[in-house]
Amino acid sequence: MPKKMNSGEQVYQSIINAIKNATLAPGDRIKENDLVKTTGFSRTPIREAISLLLNEGMITNDQKRGLIITELDQNMIAQIYEMREVLEGAAAKLAAQHASDVEISILEKIVQHHAQAKTLEDIIQNNRIFHTTLYQCSHNKFLLKSVQELENSLLLLGSTTLKDPKRGQQSYQEHLTILQALKNRDCHQAQEAAKAHIRQAYQIRLDRFLFGKIRL
After folding, report:
1. pLDDT averaged over the chain?
2. Is the alpha carbon torsion for 124, 39, 145, 136 positive or negative?
3. Predicted pLDDT of residue 35
4. SS3 at position 105
5. Exposed, middle or buried: residue 187 (CB in 10 Å: 0-12, 13-18, 19+)?
6. SS3 category, 62
7. Please, which residues have CB within 8 angstroms of residue 210's CB and are 6 or more apart in sequence?
8. Is 146 within 8 Å of 87 (Cβ atoms)?
9. What distance in Å separates the CA atoms of residue 187 and residue 201, rounded to the nearest whole number?
10. Tell me, what's the pLDDT at 5?
11. pLDDT band with cut points at 50, 70 and 90 for residue 52
12. Rounded Cα gap, residues 132 and 144, in angstroms
């Protein structure tokens, strides 16, 4: 049975959910009075949640604007993708070593479903399932914990790179390459294919970030 969240954890999760569904965006101000009204909790759990989010880097105390949802700069984006590349590569390498034949066949079915996806939403959902399953196939609880800790930071990146017109097909081909390495039990190739997959996503993210700066 899942552990019941205390008041501070509930406020924390409500803010995370607001970032996830874009109700709150990077740069938006966080005000205690607003949170009291929207969550129904007192200031004490709200301050506990804010403290947690500050420690995680999800909220920044800006000198001029006060508390805001963290805005990522180019260096921070690079750091996030560096960690993604490390974790993704490690997950694929460990999966090639430890995943059962059944687990690899499940990954294969997920990739097949990607090929049959009709909408962007289907592709995004399939991509999420593929990566979650790959992490689980590593059979390493410490890697899973590291991935979970990075997930909130990924929310600050904004919309998925899969919205790029060509990225869906590229991602499918990259998943196929990772899958083939897993089926061959080739740890090195699985790791390198997974890392290359993340580097491709980073390049699209970086191009999008720099293009946005030029437009501004």
Report:
1. 92
2. negative
3. 92
4. helix
5. middle
6. strand
7. 74
8. yes
9. 22
10. 82
11. very high
12. 9
What six digits make up the tokens of 195?
């890392």
What one-letter code names the amino acid at 152? N
Residue percentage of the chain with pLDDT more than 70 = 96
Task: Give CA separation, 141 vs 135, 136, 147, 173, 204, in Å.
Answer: 9, 8, 10, 28, 30
- 19/15 Cα distance (integer angstroms): 6
Structure tokens at 129: 């399932």
> Which domains does the chain carry?
7-69 (1.10.10.10), 74-215 (1.20.120.530)
Dist. CA 10–CA 44, nearest whole Å: 12
pLDDT of 118: 87
71/213: higher pLDDT: 71
Determine if residue 185 is left, alpha or beta; phi over 0 gives left, psi from -120 to 50 gives alpha, anything else beta: left
E strands, 12-154, are 59-62, 66-69
Tokens linked to 67 = 């508390």
Which amino acid is it at 76? Answer: M
Contact call for residues 80 and 154 (beta carbons, < 8 A)? yes
Average pLDDT over residues 159-180: 93
Mean pLDDT of 167-190: 97
**Six-digit token string for 119:** 């909408």
Q: Dihedrals φ, ψ of 59, to 5°?
A: -120, 145
pTM of the predicted structure, to 2 decimals: 0.85
> Predicted confidence band at 2 (pLDDT cuts at 50, 70, 90)?
low
Say what the pLDDT of residue 208 is: 86
Closest-CA residue to 124 (of 164, 162, 84): 162
